[in-house]
Amino acid sequence: MKRVEVSPLAWLDDIERQRRAAGLRRALRARPPVGAELDLASNDYLGLSQHPDVIDGGVAALRTWGAGSSGSRLVTGNTELHEAFEAALADFVGAESALVFSSGYTANLGAVVALSGPGSLLVSDALTHASLVDACRLSKARVVVTPHRDVTAVEQALSSRAEDRAVVITDSVFSADGDLAPLRQLHDACRRHGALLIVDEAHGLGVRGTGGRGLLEEVGLAGAPDVVMTVTMSKALGSQGGAVLGPVAVRDHLIDAARPFIFDTGLAPAAVGSAWAALGVLIAEPWRARDVLRYSAELARVCDVPDRPESAVVSVILGAPEVALAAATACLDRGVRVGCFRPPTVPAGTSRLRLTARASLSEDEMALARKALTEVLSTA
Ligand SMILES: Cc1ncc(COP(=O)(O)O)c(C=O)c1O
Which residue, 109, 176, 288, 290, has most beta carbons within 10 Å? Predict the structure, then answer.
């Protein structure tokens, strides 16, 4: 057979051209060290990634336990540090137990896949995080995606099912818009139909609930026996890693069955040490969780966003991807880094600036933000 001499990667040129034409090319930008730009883009909501105690916690763990965890937690990667942190985290959010994963992404994959599976039903909000979407794809369960925050649709999916087991999954705070899931109503629907509720509190931890204990705590569902919570330590805790929190039976099952737990190297000790120290700061300084909401309200006012934000996230919808990208670049030119979300992260026609508030913002920083955003948005 005659072979055509074409690079097996030639198709990437076509894809790249299409993306460029649609304004959807992404570029990595290496950020300079702290202080060079005002950060209104990161998920470091409480400003803890640079907190001296949090850095010291990481350094101490590094010195005691080494740079890497050295293996899967089932082999050599499980240290006393991991288990002590799990106990502290579970205690903080009011859960019976916690299991640390190497990221929030793997925590979601592990929890959803291991708690659903063939012969079960997974009901997922349409705007859940990509890690939950991927978990649905991996689960081999029947998946029903319900319209955003639509409890009636969830109830209908649960009541009309043929499967014995059902799991409802949602973010507590949705990452792109920063709005909240109707957790109480979802939980009531789950109770009525014998379903498990899995809630991703990636953006709720440190921001919602008493002293940042999360939205589940805020609505009175901390420690509920039919609720599983997932978190990441990479946002409000300023570190890295993820965790699944819930009944001890869930933890035990995940250790046996969650592939992203079993076949992944345990979280690096420095990340655990920093996350634990961050938890200590959060407990000692509960004002941080309040301040982040105060600043997000102020940013929303500056950007003429009509609804008061319910989280650290302020979404300024601009429509076309090129418009959003140009506005984000103009902000950066003025020394302010903001997020820019375009499809496929958000639906077509809703490209946006995604600003995130931080509890540690100073008055000078807020003044710079006000000036830059007002200038840029007046011409966007
Ligand atoms: C809602 C949500 N869940 C999970 C994750 C994944 O967490 P991690 O970055 O720790 O993998 C993210 C991070 O972007 C998120 O926004």
Answer: 109
C-alpha–C-alpha distance, residues 273 and 275, integer Å: 6
Tell how far the Cα of 221 is from the centroid of ligand 1, in angstroms.
Answer: 22
pTM higher than 0.85 for the full model? yes
Rg (CA), the chain: 21
CA distance 180 to 185: 12
Q: What is the DSSP letter of 4?
A: P
Q: Which residues contact 81 (CB under 8 A, 6 or more apart)?
A: 61, 64, 65, 269, 272, 273, 276
For the chain, the average pLDDT equals 95
Contact (CB, 8 A) for 253 and 123: no
Asked if residue 346 lies in contact with residue 305, where contact means CB atoms within 8 angstroms, the answer is no
Angle subtended at Cα 206 by Cα 350 and Cα 60, rounded to the nearest 5 degrees? 120
Length of the chain: 380
Tokens of 167: 């799991």
CB of 139 shorter than 6 A to ligand 1: no
Q: What is the pLDDT of residues 92-108, one digit of tens each?
A: 999 999 999 999 999 99
